[in-house]
Amino acid sequence: MKMLEERIRKDGIIAPGNVLKVDCFLNHMCDVSLFHEMGMEFKRLFKDKPINKILTIEASGIGIACVIAECFEVPVLFAKKAKSINLAGDVYATKVESFTHKRTYDVIVSKKFIGPDDHVLIIDDFLANGCALEGLIDLVQAAGATVEGIGICIEKGFQEGGSKIRAKGIQLESLAIVESMNCETGEIAFREQ
Ligand code: 5GP
Fold first, then answer.
1. In this structure, are residues 186 and 174 in contact, taking their beta carbons and an 8 Å threshold?
2. Atom of ligand 1 nearest to the CA of 23
3. Which one, 60, 70, 128, 153, has the greatest CB density within 10 A?
4. How much is the pLDDT for 100?
């Protein structure tokens, strides 16, 4: 999506540790019109899928997923990072290793809000090593629901998550795929799609 690539080039900051900071439009301050354009693009890419729910993970995925959900006219469910002590029997739970915080979280969704009738589109802001997505896929499968697809705003194509998830045979669409980024020059190259 050219509009997103241009915005990343203009406002993205390359931080140490392969981290791309886009907090002035994506995951701290939010450019809601851009989110809407992304939602319409995902709607086009997943037009043949019977999606009735969007699933994301707190915190930074929530704002984006809400705007995208409005384009699909479906509800958003977000997986919560839980304290282990709160893990009761009425939730599906999994573990996710955070790329940015370098720690492992228990992640839960209530059994009340997802079940075998659900056809889920998973949305997240970034794809790096794929741990967050693997956790979300686990939760959907534990509920007996179907993963219809995955929509990512920014995939870092030089990390292993994209190939791991595509190898599962799930339709994964990333609106911008960063092929390389240079911390010193600030240069960012995107994969042609
Ligand atoms: P993964 O689980 O695929 O390794 O990492 C994905 C999660 O880590 C995303 O939910 C996102 O919040 C965070 N993340 C991964 N890479 C980046 C990055 O370069 N920049 C930012 N802002 N977040 C990232």
1. no
2. 22
3. 153
4. 82
Domain assignment present for residue 97? The answer is yes
Residue 95 placed within a domain: yes
Cβ-count burial of 92 within 10 angstroms (0-12 exposed, 13-18 middle, 19+ buried)? buried
CATH code, domain carrying 89: 3.40.50.2020
- Measured between alpha carbons, how far is 69 from 123 in angstroms, rounded to an integer? 10
For ligand 1, atom 11, the nearest C-alpha belongs to: 126
- Mutation choice for ligand 1 from 11, 62, 125, CB with most ligand atoms inside 8 A: 125
Domain tally, the chain: 1
CA of 19 to the centre of ligand 1 (A): 8
- Looking from the CA of residue 26, the nearest atom of ligand 1 is 22
**Per-residue pLDDT at 89:** 79
Task: For 161-173, write each residue's pLDDT tens digit.
Answer: 999 999 999 999 9
128 Cα: distance to centroid of ligand 1 (angstroms): 6
Strand partners, 60: none
Does the residue 134 lie in any domain? Answer: yes
pTM exceeds 0.90, yes or no: yes
Divide the 193 residues of the chain into consecutive groups of 10 and give the mean pLDDT of each group. Answer: 97 94 97 98 98 96 97 98 73 92 91 98 98 98 98 98 97 98 94 93
| Ligand 1, CB within 6 Å, residue ranges | 19-21, 27, 60, 99-100, 124-132, 156, 161
